[in-house]
Amino acid sequence: MDKFVISGGEALSGEIPISGSKNAALPALAAALLTDEPVTLRRIPRVRDIRTMQRLLVDIGTRTEGEGEIIRLHTPEIVCPEAPYELVKTMRASSLVLGPLVARSGRARVSLPGGCAIGARPINLHIFGLEQLGAHIQQAHGYIEAEASDGLRGATVHFDRITVTGTEDLMMAAVLAKGETVLRNAAREPEVADLAELLIAMGAKIEGAGTSTIRIQGVEKLGGAEHTIIPDRIEAGTFLIAGAITGGEVTITGCNQEHVGALVAKLEQAGVEVARMDTTALRVRSNSKKLRSVDMTTEEYPGFATDLQAQYMALMTQAEGIAIVVETIFENRFMHALELARMGANIRIDGRQAIVAGPRQLTGAGVIASDLRASASLVLAALVARGETVIDRVYHIDRGYEKIEAKLASAGAMIRRVE
Ligand code: EPU
Q: What's residue 295's pLDDT?
């Protein structure tokens, strides 16, 4: 198992390019199941979750070509409409094939995901939505079996709570349903809007993606398309925080400024200088001795992303004062706090809130990555810690960050991967 060895104390300086969004690329790959024509996707990040999704699609019947940023997918027919436990347990986003499979082939068998390091994360809302569209769903032996042999019918689906992949799954089911589907209380994340753009290029009729009401007129058939995935706003945010926490000057390029608006607002309140260079570049400059604590509550987009909460907490360990960080999306997303505390952070957890008192001089230690974003926060903390930090189980970080060690090293970080 790989580890990262990081020597802290270097102020980062340089330019870091942003990769395509993992969480936009995953549903885009699943969308290729909706047509028997080829779909070409550009700016695919080379991360482990993408390889896992490709493996799943191949088992279902997709031919995929291209290892790099461009992937061509072609699914002449659905050979096996199934997402097995072995894959779903390593990547919950595998459930994104449920909607497309039922829509295209009238049936799907998808493993229930089981436990997760950051919260329960059930898929009841995906199931509820598909039932509204007329699918018959049964649960047995740890699997969901969905069937709609006469096809899906458009309906109004009002989500009890906002779900990102639930909205995406239902949108993909509805594009081939008969009649109109209205998704209410839909997720407004940029990844949902990006998926809609791809589906529209394939011939789908969708209005309102990116707002909380999405209207879809079902069509008989979808065709092939080419699409470029949006930049990864969580990767972008992580590198902005890397610049800020080390008291350096980091420019991220190829990003979408609007997508990181909530983080930028917090950084500015915390005393970090953020310059909008052109429409796709942002530069942070900070004096790490002058960071101020700022409270933060995670919310659905356009609020502050839960996927940046752990990284933000690392930053707050270096800020003067007390920051209250409230996690509202997942019930167990503070695992990093205990590891940060091992490095010397002063953090108290009280239910869904973490109270971070700073600034504290962190010191390098052996720590364990518990999930993707928690690992990123440990890397950030290690960049300012005195001495050497060894982060174990970096396979978590490899799920969603493309070459993070190379990108950080190019800006002067002392980070290396050891086997
Ligand atoms: N929820 C339910 N029932 C459902 C679906 C969700 O109760 O059927 C709950 C979840 O348990 C959670 C909340 O609703 O408490 C929101 O979950 P959501 O469904 O929005 O999360 P997701 O779609 O499974 C995506 C991202 C996550 C990101 C969340 C929230 C992908 C592939 N994953 O997950 O990304 O944290 O939205 O923004 O898009 C990551 O990249 O590290 C990551 C975890």
A: 98
Looking at ligand 1, which atom is closest to the CA of residue 161? 14
pLDDT in tens, 260-306: 999 999 999 999 999 999 889 999 999 888 999 999 999 999 999 99
Closest CA to 172 of 137, 135, 139: 135
- Residue 6 — φ and ψ, nearest 5°? -125, 130
Distance 113 CA to ligand 1 centre (A): 12
| CA 238 to centroid of ligand 1, rounded, Å | 19
Lowest-pLDDT choice from 21-35, 117-131, 333-347: 117-131
The CATH number for 3-18+231-418, chosen from 3.40.50.170, 3.30.450.40, 3.65.10.10, 3.40.50.2300, is 3.65.10.10
Ligand 1 within 6 A of CB of 329: yes
Residue nearest to atom 2 of ligand 1 (CA): 122
Q: Is residue 163 within 6 Å of ligand 1 at its C-beta?
A: yes
Fold of 22-228: UDP-n-acetylglucosamine1-carboxyvinyl-transferase; Chain (3.65.10)
CA–centroid distance, residue 71 to ligand 1 (Å): 25
At 332, give phi and psi (nearest 5°). Answer: -135, 45
CA of 402 to the centre of ligand 1 (A): 21
At 92-150, the pLDDT tens digits run: 999 999 999 999 999 999 998 876 777 778 899 999 999 999 999 999 999 999 999 99
Cα separations in angstroms, 236 against 75, 287, 376: 33, 20, 12
From the alpha carbon of 121, which atom of ligand 1 is closest? 11
Tell me the residue type at 200: I
Task: Specify the pLDDT at position 70.
Answer: 97
**Chain segment 195-240, per-residue pLDDT in tens:** 999 999 999 999 999 999 999 999 999 999 999 999 999 999 999 9
How distant is the alpha carbon of residue 283 from its chain centre?
23
- CA distances in angstroms from 20 to 168, 226, 234, 251, 301, listed in the order given: 18, 15, 10, 17, 18
Residue whose CA is at the smallest distance from ligand 1 atom 13: 329
